[in-house]
Structures are given as structure tokens and as C-alpha cells.
Amino acid sequence: MNIESILLSMRSGSEQRPEAIEAFVRGVADESISRPQAAAWLAWAYMRGLSGAETLALTRAMTRSGEVLSWPEGAPLVDKHSTGGVGDKVSLVLAPLWASLGLRVPMISGRGLGHTGGTLDKLEAIPGYRCDLEEAHLIQQLAEVGCFISGQTRSLAPADRVLYGLRNETSTVDANPLIVGSILSKKLAEGVEHLVLDVKVGSGAFMKTPAQARALATALVEVAEGSGVRCAANLTAMDRPLGVAVGNAVEVEEAIACLRGEGPDELRELVLLLAGHPRAAEELDSGRPLERFARMVEAQGGDPRVVDDPSRLQGAGVEEELVRAPRAGVVGEVDALALGMAAFRLGAGRSRAEDPVDFGVGLRVHARPGQRVREGEPLLTLLHRGGRGLEVARAQVLAALRVGDVAPDVLPLVVDTVGDAGLSGIVAAS
Ligand code: URA
Predict the structure, then answer these.
(1) I need a labelling partner for 29 at 20 to 30 A (CA). Which of 116, 309, 373, 375 fits?
(2) What is the mean pLDDT of the chain?
(3) How far apart are the first and last CA of the chain?
(4) CATH class belonging to 318-404
(5) From the CA of 353, how far away is ligand 1's center (Å)?
(6) 108, 109, 164: which to mutate for ligand 1, most atoms within 8 A of CB?
(7) Does the pLDDT value for residue 421 go beyond 60?
């Protein structure tokens, strides 16, 4: 099957047979299909959409474009994927919590882009922590520690690397079938049996409305289940940041607090919900998941002493500026997008994949939507380095955090769920 006939068939709107999609993806991965040809295929897929069967075929082909990890017999293999947001440090808590509950967690994670943070950037705030582990190391670590959080290896879903880059260049990122193929090919290549999805909704998320998030979650669950992975999704609030900390080192610190049974209630609530295990709360309070986190950090070359002494995290030497309530009243929306952009301006994020991040800068958001405050009460702390980006970040924060007289409408933490088993069914049933 040649690419010319595949493109003509796409152009005519015909349903693509799985073999045609497989041939396209194979050609992308081995570079026998040119970039303009691949870009044309993406543009046709974007314009006309892909059916459920086509999306399943695309996902399977992308998964098989590289190596699919396989694991020895043992405890259930579980993972979580979040579609990304502001202050989302759940993975740092959930992976060791699940491992401590006896599950195996082979978590391949990503980096931040724009206003959304990335799990790997946060973990790299731990001195020495490595996210580029070879497969042999991952296998040994999973057997010994029960979890890892590392980056995509070169051999995992290589077609996604090419297609994702092209989608960015051709403005074809925001098409659900392409998003599903991209997210799930990487997760399926991990060889997991259970996948819990956290589809974020709100200003700081990819999906701005519950309807958009529900459509994506439904497509993700259907294709994951169709590929033999038990899957359910939660739609959760991203109209405000999750927890207090937004940045890199500050988020690691907050995740460690959560692993100690401390930290913001909303973070703990979401971790326990996604864990979906009847003993999750008891386990989190036992201190064992924190020990497991330290073991994971050490196994990945990081300094486990950060657990007891967060001042060892990278990025020290930042300055703090308090933003105070200009009047007494009620805090309105605490807009996740604006706060994510403010953290980005301070240097916590990046606009290109190859840019470095500043581990130390970011925000601590003290105010919650609807909270009553007195004049002069601290709303937020800006963590900046020598004033870099401070003026713009300050303006963004002041616009995002208005104090008025009326409590805003905010999304409930859990907006909806998708998937038969519900989240608690999945892991607990195993
Ligand atoms: N994350 C991914 O990995 N792929 C997408 O297409 C969108 C978000």
C-alpha cells in the first residue's frame, strides 16, 4: 500500500482500513513517508475526523511503532495519565502510594510546555534525579521498588514523536482522535493492565468545558478498553490550580507534605480518589509511601535526603514577594491559566521543549475561590529570581485574583466520571 493511494483515499473521505493506517504509521516511523506527506495525512484526519475504529487502529499502530515493554508475572501493572494542568503534582504522590499498596507502577511521564507543568521537570528539581533511564534499569527498579517515573525512551512509540512534532507545526494538535492516539500509544507501550485517567477541565486545562472533556475522556476510555487495558476516567477541576504550590521545587515540597499526610486537602482528596483503593488513606497516613518515594528517588540517582530537608532541592536563592488583598471581601475566581502563565513568566516553565526551567521560582497560592479575606491579607507569594519576569507575573496575578463581594461559581473537584468500573472499581478489583 503506497502513501499516494492512502492520501487519495483520505482525501475522498473513505473509512480507512486498519492495514492502511498501519502502513501510514510504519512509514512515519521508518521515515519512508516524507514529512509533507505525513503532514497532509494529519490535516485530512484533522478536517474529517477519524471514526472509533480508525482511532483504535491508529493507536495500536502507534503503540507498535516501537517497543512494547513486557513485565514478568506479578502484581497488577497500573498507571495514571493526566491531561495536564497547573499545580498538578499528583503523580509524585500516587506512584509511591500505589507501589506501597503492592501494585506495580511503570510510569512514563512528560515535560511541561507553556503554562502547564511537567512531572519530569518537577522531579529533576531533586539533585541527581534521572529521567533518562534505560530499559534494563527500569525493569530492575520496578521489581525492587515497585515504581518508577521516567521519560519516554527513544524506542517507545517513536511514531508519536514524529507526529506530535508535525502536529505542533501544522496546527493539528487539538483533534481528539490524534490526542487519543498520542496519549494512549505511550501508555499502552508501557505494558500496563490498568489505566486511570485524570482529564482536567477549566481555564488551565486543554479542555475548557465539561462537554469537551467528556468527549475526550469517552474516546480515551473506549480505545484503551478496546486495546485490552482496563480504563476509567475522572473529569476534575482545573479552573483553579491544584493545591497551593505552582512551579517545580515548590511542587515537590508539597507532594512530600502530602506523602506525610499533610498538605492541601484538595490534593489529598484527588490522590485518594485516583488511587481508587479502599486502603489508600490508611496507607498514605502510615508513612510507608513516603519511604517508597525516597527509595524511588535514590534508585533514579536522586538525593533521598530531600524528603527530610526540602532545602536540598535545586533552585535555592529565590526571592519572595507577597501579593496582598487590596480590600476586604470575597476572593473571586483563582484563574488557573493566568496563574500558570505567571509561573511561566517567572521561569518555571518553557515555550520550547529544549528550553531549561528554573527549579526554584513559582507561586504559592494562599487564597481559594470564595474565601473571605481582610484588607492586606496575603493572597499569593511570587517566588522570583532577581526580578526576572516579575512585573508581568505580578500584573497577571492581580488580574487573576480579584477580591469582590460575590463568591464565584467554581467547578466541583470531580466534575464527572467515565468508564463502567468507576475509578475505585479498577484498582481495588485487582
Ligand atoms: N499529550 C500528549 O501526549 N499528546 C497529545 O496529543 C496531547 C497531550
Answers:
(1) 116
(2) 95
(3) 42
(4) alpha beta
(5) 13
(6) 164
(7) no
Q: Which three cell numbers stand for residue 202?
A: 477549566
- Evaluate whether 28 touches 159 at the Cβ level (below 8 Å): yes
Strands (E), 50-171: 78-82, 105-109, 147-151
Q: Where are the alpha helices (DSSP H) in 227-312?
A: 249-259, 265-275, 280-286, 288-299
Judge whether 85 and 205 are in contact, CB under 8 Å. yes
Taking the C-alpha atoms of residue 84 and residue 119, their distance in angstroms, rounded to an integer, is 10
Distance CA 164, CA 168 (A): 6
Q: Measure 323 CA to ligand 1 centroid, in angstroms.
A: 34
- Give the chain's count of helices (H) and strands (E): 17, 13
User: Does residue 153 surpass a pLDDT of 90?
Assistant: no
- pLDDT-based confidence at residue 353 (cuts at 50, 70, 90): confident
Tell me which of 3.30.530.20, 3.40.30.10, 3.40.50.1110, 3.40.1030.10 is the CATH number of domain 78-154+161-309+413-428: 3.40.1030.10
Angle CA 62–91–159, to nearest 5: 15
pTM above 0.90, yes or no: yes
**What is the whole-number distance in angstroms between the Cα of residue 163 and the centre of ligand 1?**
10
> Is the predicted pLDDT of residue 307 greater than 60, yes or no?
yes
186 is catalytic: yes
CB 42 less than 6 A from any atom of ligand 1: no
* Measured distance CA(403)–CA(418) in Å, rounded: 35
Angle at alpha carbon of residue 75, lines to 71 and 79, rounded to 5°: 75
> Which ligand 1 atom is nearest residue 186's CA?
3
Predicted confidence at residue 252, as pLDDT, reads 98
Q: Is 179 in the pocket of ligand 1 (CB under 6 A)?
A: yes
Cell of residue 16, nine digits: 480507512
Task: State in Å: Cα 218 to ligand 1 middle.
Answer: 16
Break the chain into its structural domains and give their ranges.
3-48, 78-154+161-309+413-428, 318-404
